[in-house]
Amino acid sequence: MPHLLNSYRAENITLRAGGRLLLDGAGVTVAPGRVSVLIGPNGAGKSTLLKVLSGELRPSGGQVRLGEEAVSRLGPALLARRRAVLPQSVEVAFPFTVAEVVAIGRPAGRGGHEAVSRALGRVEMAERAGEAYQRLSGGEKQRVQLARTLVQLEAGAERGGGPGYLLLDEPTASLDLAQQMLVLRLMRTLAAEGVGVLAVLHDLNLAVLAADEIVALEAGRVVARGTPHEVMTDARIGALYKVPARIGWAPEALPFLLPHGLVGDGAKR
């Protein structure tokens, strides 16, 4: 694990809103060259913690640090050079083309067209560059928005920000299986290029394929943290999701989840 001073981290985060405690001492570290995945049931605080880390939400307690700097002291422009964010959904009100949406991630200047083309190629949308964004399917829009974050990261690296950090909130939610695997491969490739990646994923089997580290949240607290092998156990996953769970082992020696109700006699047709 790289030294903490080279990481992007949320430390002991507390967040209250509307009389509710949304995060209770939660924390996560995004390290260069690694993929971390947040898991947990609905309402556990995964997206909220990601928003605190990105700077979108200000915590009631704790701190977010990017290297040695507190994120609260960084201006929006500097923060944008260091990290890119893909939220669950992005509304685009204007009649932009696919290429124009992706170009939003890059400051005006030389090399913009090439950067947009490279990013669209990485998400297999290069041939759709001139099409109207609004006519795309939900999954296609998601891939275009992912390309936008890639352009932003590349621009930040060119301006001295290093490989940067990518924060993804349910990036596979609206994608078919082939495109889910495309996103997972891209996450791993970006990590190999030095990017620190954090993703919220609901599909635990996809989380296992992508993650160097899995961080499990429940009721705003981190209840487990470790490698997929360490976190994915019958007892831990069963307790986290309140369902009987059975962990199997794939040929690649990776754990995978089978909900217990679909195992054994209950699965017979």
Automatic annotation (TrEMBL):
Family: Belongs to the ABC transporter superfamily.
Protein name: Heme ABC transporter ATP-binding protein
InterPro entries membership: AAA+_ATPase, ABC_transporter-like_ATP-bd, ABC_transporter-like_CS, P-loop_NTPase
Entry's Gene Ontology molecular function annotations: ATP binding
Function, as annotated: Part of the ABC transporter complex HmuTUV involved in hemin import. Responsible for energy coupling to the transport system.
Pfam families cross-referenced by the UniProt entry: ABC_tran (PF00005)
Keywords on record: ATP-binding, Nucleotide-binding, Translocase, Transport
The keyword Transport is annotated on this UniProt entry: yes
ABC transporter domain ranges (all copies): 8-244
Species this protein is from: Ancylobacter crimeensis
Superkingdom of the source species: Bacteria
PANTHER family linked to this entry: HEMIN IMPORT ATP-BINDING PROTEIN HMUV
